[in-house]
Every structure is written in structure tokens, then in C-alpha cells.
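Archive entry: two folds, one per protein. Generate the first.
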Amino acid sequence: MSRYRLNWYELEESDSGDWLVKFPLGDVYSELVDHAFPNLTHIGWRPSTKSVNYTYIKGATSQEIEELGKYLQLLKHILVLRLNKNLENYFKDELDQCFALDFNLEDSETYTDVGQLEYEAKYNRDQQCANKLAKRLAGVCASHPNLNEVDCIAAVPGNPGKEFHLPDLLVEKMGEYLSRDTGLDLRKSRSTPQLKNLPLEEKIETLKDVFVLDDDVEGESILLVDDLYQSGTTMWTLARFLKENGADKVYGLVCVKSWRDTDNI
């Protein structure tokens, strides 16, 4: 499995003053918590029941516990996207973390609220829907300890000369909501066919050497924004390219995750 949502968590103060933290999918969420709060001191993550991990946090301030609670609450409302088994032979750790607002569909015939916004913004160029998406994306950034501190927020680039590319608009509007500069001199050197219709190996070959970067990203952390994450091939390929050019951390944030993890194989 490569997409996760935190269904529940416990954050309770013990009689000793330490704080118990417990949640399911411990291998996924313990790593996220440690990355978001590297200065928290705890006894180490320990198994409780199957896939459930817990720890006790020691010496934390009330502000640190409040921030941890807000972060865990955020993780209940967004998806965590990890490398799926179809890409394991091609990628490893190029993308540090990736998140989605929601799935695009509730079932085969019904869009989620976010999925409907993404559809209208992308295919009907609905400005109001695009603004709502950007506001939600910006809200995740502002609430996430790692994403809030990135050096750069950039769109996954579209084909050269493309008249309308939703990620560009989303990043521009996110900058307005977050009151910060956005964008990166990042582009494709050539047009690529609609990648979702290509077999996986052909898609990876198509993306080979397609990205061009004219900014210095040495040692920087970058947040890549896209509208749809299917297998993640584009996001992972671009993350690899940015790290080859010196980026320290690369995160991803997308509007929707498709139900399928695979491209055509």
C-alpha cells in the first residue's frame, strides 16, 4: 500500500508528566513525526498491537505539544503518499515526503469534494474552484512544520507553450495566500505525450532528461505542487532531477490522488 490516512491517534499526558503518543501505521507516521519535530525527546517508537506504535515524549513544552496535536490532526485530513511497489525498481528516496488533499473519487461514479474542484478547475478552467484548491493547499503548507519552512514552492512544469497549466495557477495563488514568493525557473525542454496513457517503462523513458533548471537550488528545500498524482512517476523523476542539481529536500503536495497506483504496465 502506498497511500495512507491517519484514522485516529492518542495524545495524552501521563501521571509523570510525560506525553503518550500512539497511532496506527506506526512505520509510516512515526517517521513523519520525527521528521517534523526533530527536537522532541522520546523513549523511541515501540509496538503496541499490530501496526500500532507508541512512545512517551519527555520534557516537552506546552507549545510543542500543542503543535504536535495540530500536526496529528492535519494528518487525519490529508493523504500520505509513498513509493508504490511498481516504482520500487526505479526510485528509492528521491522524494522526501508527499501529500494529497484527498482522493479524486469516492467511488467509480462520484467525485470527492476536492476531486470535483480539481475537475472543474482543470477541465473547465473554473477560477473560483482553482482559488479554493489553492487556499486548501496553502492551508496545508501553513499547518505543516516541514512544508511551512521550504525555501521554494514550485509547480510541476507542463509542456512548453501550454496555454493553461493548473499547477502554475495554484502555485501563484498559494503565494498570495501565504504572502510569500513562489516559483522556480524550471521547465520541460520538450513536449511529452499524455503520460497517463503510457506504459510505466515508456513513461520513465519519456521523462528522461526532459527537465531543465535555470535556478541555483544547492542546499535548498523545495515543495513541488501538482493537481493529480497517479503512480507518482513524474513527481519522483522531478525530485531526482532536483536532487541531482543540489537540492537538499524535495517534498510533494497535490490536489488529488487517483484510486489507481499504476500507470499502464
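Generate the second and append.
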Amino acid sequence: VMFNLGYLPKGDHSIATKACTTIEALRKSMELLMDGGIITIVIYYGGDSGFEEKEAVLEYVKAIDCRKYSVLVSDFVNQINCPPIAVCIEKIRK
């Protein structure tokens, strides 16, 4: 499963992903994920609601049960202007 958060560049910025629907979609995707399956998320957070969504998603993934899933968060620490953040969630094989 792949999530590409934010809005379409050069598109209508009023049409963007939102924290509440993203978290619900993540929760449901995790329930459906098979053992060894992966969810990837790229967080683009420069838009109007992007910072709220970024914080909500990062808070959510940090609280995921480490006995069931492995979570990796990767960001560009030396770039400016809201560089994207990549998240990978893997369901641990039983």
C-alpha cells in the first residue's frame, strides 16, 4: 500500500489529503496487510493543512505496536522548504 500525502503540484491546493482521513486509511490498511507486507508513506507538508497532517501521521506511526510492525521514518535533515518525509511500515512475520 502506498500513500502520497499533500496536494498535486501545480494543482488546486484546496484539494489535499487531511489528517483525519489519512489516519483512518492507514489504520484500515494495516488491518488488511499480510505478514511481511509494507505500507509506504511520503509526507509532503508545505500546504495549508500539511503541518497538521505531518504531525498527526508521525504521532500515529510512533505509537504503532512494535511487536506487530516495524516503522522506519526517513527525512532530509539538511534541506530547507519542507522536504518530504518518507515512512515505511512493515508487518512483522509471525
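Annotation attached to the second fold: Residues 1-7+15-64 form one domain. The chain has a mean pLDDT of 94.
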